[in-house]
Amino acid sequence: MAGQVTENRDTPVTRRITPRSATPVALALGVLLLTDALRVFLPSLITLYGRAGETPPEQMGVFAALWFVLPFAAVPVARLAGARPVLVFGAIALVAGRLVLQAAGGGDAQLYVSATAVCAGLVFLYGAARTAARDTVPVGLAAGLAVSTVVHLLLDRMDLVWRGGPLPWVAVLVACAAFLAAALASVRLSPPSDGLAPAAVWFLAGPALLLTGMFSGGPGFLELGQDWAALVSFDVALRVVLLFWGVACARSAPWSGWAGLILIIAVSAQAADVASGLVIVTPVVLGACLGQAARGGLPAARPPRNGAAVLGGMVVFLVGTFLYYAAYDADLGFPNVVIPIAVAVLVAATSAKISRGRPVASAAWPARRWLAFALPLGLVAGLLAWRPAPGERAVDRPEFTLITYNIRMGFGLEGRLDLDRIADWARAQHPDVVLLSEVDRGWMLNGGHDDLARIAEGLGMRYYFAPAADRLWGEALLTNLPVRQVVSHPLGRHDYPTGAQAQAIVLTVGGKEVGIVNTHLQAPPGQAPEAAAIVRALSGADGGASRPVLLAGDLNTTPDEPAMRALESAGLSDPLLTLGNPPTSPADAPSKRIDHVLLSPGLRAIEARVPRVPFSDHLPVVVRLRLD
Fold first, then answer.
1. Is the pLDDT reported for residue 357 higher than 60?
2. How far apart are alpha carbons 474 and 503 in whole angstroms?
3. Of 122, 435, 504, 606, which sits with the fewest C-beta atoms within 10 Å of its C-beta?
4. Helix, coil or strand: residue 14
5. How many other CB atoms are there within 10 angstroms of residue 469's CB atom?
6. Which of 455, 407, 456 is nearest to 584 (CA)?
7. 418-470: pLDDT as tens digits
8. Which DSSP helix (H) or strand (E) runs through 436?
9. What is the CATH number of the domain that holds 601?
10. pLDDT computed for residue 242 by the predictor
11. Residues 617 and 478 placed together within one structural domain of the fold
12. pLDDT value, residue 278
């Protein structure tokens, strides 16, 4: 019978996949596995191939582009052997890459396996674009984006690839088996009676992935502190509901004529920091745009270019990602907020090219049923995401232990995400105050993780975030001591593209106030005098309340450089000079000290250490301080 799936007794998952569901299930799980690989490949590109800025960005861009261009080799192969073998090969290679990635222990193996898995995922999408029926495509793509984001949220933004033990393996094996079964079932279907989906909807897969990764997973967009965990939990639940509703909109697209305009407005508002709460709108309108694009007609005079369209859309994803984040290290001549807005305009313009004579497809599952299914799941997701903030804990003695650490977004020397190991190590030092630099709260380039929430949970501490480059990247203070004041002061850029700040904190130790300035200087010659002025104001030297102050962080300057003289002019001294002057960078072969704890009169270091730990490209500084 046409469209009937042949039963395979050796693959029980296949028997449960019907002809009607095989293609969207394969697409959804394929997108899920592809995004898994991307969340490893993109940070590996920075931390392993890029070596934290040592590799020229042009070379990094060529290397990354190679893995997005290689899938175009599937075009001549499909002409000779057909698209279905290409789909099967891509699916098998993607599953193999994902399984090997779970076993990879970091290093070059992680970099190249993740790159190969990304390449295989694109080959699979090329094969699917040449075989999938029109109405299954927007459902499968939107469901894949939704499931990928929801799973990421439910896993507390710590993907399975970064987790050890048997349970992650079981989950990965189940997902890979279900995907492979659905992919094999889809190739056994008869040619689609409704025709292939137009190239427009396939082209939008890449831009939709870019916007989803940038604006649907980062908790920092709401700019809420730890005390608002219940509201953040509600936000997680709402996103889950709207993501699944976006799937329904992709199927029926009842209001997709307005979807493109709403998408442009929502992305522009978020990118420009005007209304970051509009992040919840993006999934719905993306789904509607996909549904709109699927209604377009196919050219009658030439063969469909669906496969080339999906690969071209993924090139847009790569170029947009590279340009947006490259702006933090190089002057592009324009603000990087232009990138997501331009992509939103591209999505809107592409989805507007529809065949108005073709009626909107009726949804097999109406939107209200999607909501009825998604609402309980959303509430469960919100409950799982909620974490109560620890309470304050006063210290009676006039001593406290402080750690300052540039964590490089949580990626260790082998390119593995070491957030849990950072928390375990830091907890063993029994710190009262932890200062972190290069904290990422959801950059897609680094995998979309919330470093701060994860480390704070492992330490059982309250946190205070200070945005620097943007609202998702900066510095943070973690402590359970009573905090009287937290203010983030922007520092001048001084021709350096990445922004910087100085977080001024007043907390209480042994009944006395202590000031802390937590910063990461990007352009020390110009920013050091600004940080010194903040130290003077916090210490009361300008006529305020008198208190001892320390300045700590990655200052990107050594003790003998002129910028240090500017800091010393604020009354700061370097206690590590008399305690061995231990180097802190680079972590694998430290030769210079650019991470510092500088003290004003009234504070004395009674112990200082620079432990050799491999959780970043910097080494941490641990000091035991006493108030005189």
1. no
2. 10
3. 606
4. helix
5. 21
6. 407
7. 999 999 999 999 999 999 999 998 899 999 888 998 999 999 999 999 999 88
8. strand 433-440
9. 3.60.10.10
10. 72
11. yes
12. 64
144-148, 271-275, 291-295, 601-605, range with the lowest pLDDT: 271-275
Burial group, residue 192, by CB count within 10 angstroms (0-12, 13-18, 19+):
middle
Residue 612: its pLDDT value, please? 95
The distance in angstroms from the start CA to the end CA of the chain is 87
Q: How far is CA 199 from CA 102, 303, 314, 440, in A?
A: 33, 11, 13, 36
pLDDT at 582 over 70: yes
Cis peptide before 586 (omega within 30 of 0): yes
Residues 377 and 403 in one domain: no
Binned at pLDDT 50, 70 and 90, residue 19 comes out as: very low
Is 443 strand, coil or helix?
coil
> What does the pLDDT read at residue 14?
38
Number of domains composing the chain: 2
Q: Do 161 and 283 belong together in one domain?
A: yes
Higher pLDDT, 258 or 523: 523
What are 14's two structure tokens?
A: 């296949």
Identify whether 66 is part of a domain: yes
CB of 385 within 8 A of CB of 233?
Answer: yes
- Of the candidates 212, 228, 279, 216, the residue with the CA atom closest to the CA atom of residue 465: 228
Residue 34 to residues 87, 101, 247, 272: CA-CA distances in angstroms?
Answer: 14, 12, 19, 29
Looking at residue 358, the DSSP 8-state letter turns out to be S
Instruction: Identify residue 184 by its one-letter amino acid code.
Output: L
Joined tokens for residue 466: 């200070």
Give 207's DSSP letter.
H
The model carries a pTM of: 0.89
Domain span at 620: 399-627
Which of 385, 412, 447 is where one domain is finished?
A: 385
Final residue in a domain of this structure, among 362, 385, 408: 385
Nearest CA to 401 out of 497, 506, 478 is that of 478
- Does 556 lie in the same domain as 472? yes
Question: What are the distances in angstroms from CA 311 to CA 68, 93, 560?
Answer: 8, 17, 52
Going by C-alpha positions, the residue among 398, 424, 399, 433 that lies closest to residue 624 is 399
Q: Kindly state the tokens that stand for 169.
A: 């393996």
Torsion of CA 234, 264, 346, 153, to 10 degrees: -10
